[in-house]
Amino acid sequence: MERRTLLATGIAAASAAALRAPSARAARRLGRVRPGGPGWPSDADWASLARATGGRLSRVTLPALEGPKAQALLSNPFYIADQPGLTESSGWLDAWRSSPSAYVVAASSAADVAAAVRFAGAHNLRLVIKGRGHSYCGASSAPDSLLVWTRAMDGVTVHDAFVPAGSSAAPVPAVSVGAGCMWLHAYQAVSVGAGRYVQGGGCTTVGVAGLVQGGGFGSLSKGFGSAAGSLLEAEIVTADGKIRVVNHDKEPDLLWALKGGGGGTFGVVTRLTLATHDLPKTFGAVDLTIQAHSDEAYRGLIARFVELYATSLFNPHWGEQVRAGPGNRLKVSMLFQGLEQAEARAAWKPLIEFADAHPGDYDGQDSLSAIALPAKLFWDASIMRHVPGAVVMDPRPGASPTDFWWSGNTEEAAVFWHAYTSAWLPASLLDPGNQARLVDAWFAASRHWPVAFHFNKGLAGAPDAAIAAARDTATNPDALAAFALAIIADAGPTLYGGAAPDLVEPRANAARVQAAMTALRAAAPGAGAYINECDYFQADWQRAFWGPNYPRLARIKRRYDPNGLFFVHHGVGSEAWSADGFTREA
What are the strands, taking DSSP E only, across 131-267? Predict the structure, then answer.
């Protein structure tokens, strides 16, 4: 039996034992309650929760979703995040559709969260957690549920010298953020304001808490590691309603589980403190599109790029992605740190010279653009708003003049996913003797659908300290040995406020996405996947997301949440529940 088969068998057996119902009494509580059904809280019960949370309980109502004005608002991720009944994705083909909860606690403190958690446990409610609402797999959406909404808990505090509670460790520069904080605001406080860097996500409106709990890869992770690897301390409300502060000295197992074990699973995180790093001298971007005029030429272009990446770009300076697709176009959209503009341009000279040396086979070599700016300015809205095509400012009346999103993320607002899948690609594929196998697989996959290699989401090539920090997280160790995360996806317009879509073409496209991933996996069979950007229908998900870490996560889940109050699709312990999280089946 192969090693991976043995590993998967061991994980399954250990998980089943770790998640076994703790007692016959607990096992009898098989179903959660729904509105109008037996056990649903009375009006008096809801009134008591409203009092306990200072009036921050309300029924969830949806905003207007039809008409040009409403549809324009639904292209604004800030607007979506401000609505308790909406999520940043409107659903997934044959999987889920965004549905509002019955009630929401718009929490402003850990005490509000604790009151909601205790109420949900006492009344056997389906509980949902939402900060910014970016989960592709619908973790923050469930009808007939109680929503704990942490959007208002968005404070940011920068520390020159932070020491975790109860620790004798030396103080380090850090930043503390509330559970509703988005990465844009963290970056603006840390980089623009304090001249430091905190490793986070690439999309400005993604929530800090959800990204960290999923592992947390961003545009510059090749230089600074995962966001989870920077987590020093967290405040969390567990299923018993206790507010806990966890770090490497206080309940270290729970801290470890929060570092990549999946959001919405072990409790409601209310605050996180992350280590910060020295700010590089520059951040910058490179864009280049080269068109090949035959399949043979295209395969040659891919091969030359893979060789160039392995010899010159496989280092902490470079992140983001290169995409290959059926149109025989290689699209480079890379970010860099710590390089001057001339250095960044020079790095791509060999690929351009290769194309120039084959007249008639390629064009687009003159499309290369490179821009570098002082890193301190990268999230400075007063600067970025003047960079053509770079950002979209929040256009709502009264919006903060510092709030923006990258223009490339506009198409993801309220999106309806048809398919999405990912796989970590081992760095061994960059060895000269293995490059042909990688090139063949990437080219074959690109015949079905565009395939993007996100180099920042594999940590091979990162500094030793960044890899060591990521090793002390729950993330699948495949990420540490990967040079890139391959992502293949398709999506369509929002389902909010629209007529029922024709699903024939989306299903056909979803099949092409899966065919592309099958072709790519010929080079990396059994490769793990990134939980924050994964297939809703991921097979063998426990191994794919966490590898050998799953049994330990299952034990921690049973210790802190024995009755399964916290449920998300394909989260730790979810195999004990029905797909909707309402019925316990094991």
Answer: 146-149, 156-162, 172-178, 196-197, 231-237, 243-247
